[in-house]
Amino acid sequence: xxxxxxxxxxxxxxxxxxxxxxxxxxxxxxxxxxxxxxxxxxxxxxxxxxxxxxxxxxxxxxxxxxxxxxxxxxxxxxxxxxxxxxxxxxxxxxxxxxxxxxxxxxxxxxxxxxxxxxxxxxxxxxxxxxxxxxxxxxxxxxxxxxxxxxxxxxxxxxxxxxxx
Length: 164
Hints:
Blueprint: H1 13-20, H2 25-44, E1 61-64, E2 77-79, E3 88-92, E4 98-102, E5 114-115, E6 119-121, E7 128-130, E8 135-137, E9 146-147, E10 149-152, E11 157-160
Antiparallel strand pairs: 1-11, 2-3, 3-4, 4-9, 5-6, 6-7, 7-8, 10-11
């Protein structure tokens, strides 16, 4: 313990200035942390990419399978949105089953991500996804969001229940 009285303690000019303005260390650190978090959130962008689409996914639509030869066999993948709304891929997972996935990377909302032989790849930061939409590598923090599908074998169509 020092023998100096509070009046004789030496105070740094910065500490004196902060106290003179009513800003103590705890308040400063709290404000700096909040500012850093705000910058981080802005830098990461919208993880679902909704803002990139003006808040719209485009709504449900129907795909005619004959228009996409890649979907004739199980494991086939095609981009089927026609440039309207959220970029959307359709994957044939079985004879009568399909999975529809958004082509918007969940890392920073980059769209459209690329279709590859093994699944999907985001060229922006290197995130990778399987044909089921599962995250397999890179900085993304989740899987590709999926939309429900309804297959009509008689008509040869798949309706994708994409949100409006």
